[in-house]
Amino acid sequence: MSFISIKDLRVSFDDVQVLHGIDLEISKGEAIGLVGESGCGKSVTWLAALGLLRPRRRCPAP
């Protein structure tokens, strides 16, 4: 039984795609660790998965 299931997670900032189709499944009672180099998207992955990234408003062109 899946506790969390993520399919094709994608995140873009200012038209630059920073996450490209992340798939992740965590079962109930399972513990995982996400490791990687600085700036590789670990925090953005979890913030997006938890729904904590807010859409940014675009400023109108001058």
In short:
13% of the residues lie in helices and 39% in strands. The protein is built from one helix and two strands, in the order ββα.
Average pLDDT value?
Answer: 87
The gross shape turns out to be elongated
Number of helices: 1
Q: Report how far the terminal alpha carbons are from each other.
A: 52 Å
Largest sheet: 2 strands, antiparallel
User: Helix-strand pattern, N to C?
Assistant: EEH
User: What class would the helix/strand composition place it in?
Assistant: mainly beta
User: Strands of the biggest beta sheet: in what spatial order?
Assistant: 1-2
Low-confidence stretches: none
Number of domains: 1
Query: Tally of extended strands?
Result: 2
Please state the CA-atom Rg, rounded to the nearest Å. Answer: 14 Å
- Our estimate of the beta-strand percent is 35-45%
Describe this structure in words.
The protein has 62 residues and is mainly β. The chain has one domain (2-49). Helix content is 13%, strand content 39%. It has one helix at residues 42-49, and strands at 2-13, 16-27. A hairpin with a 2-residue loop joins strand 1 and strand 2. The longest helix has 8 residues, at 42-49.
Set down the secondary structure blueprint.
Layout: E1 2-13, E2 16-27, H1 42-49
Antiparallel strand pairs: 1-2
Features of the shown structure:
mainly beta; elongated; ATP binding; cell membrane; membrane; ABC_transporter-like_ATP-bd
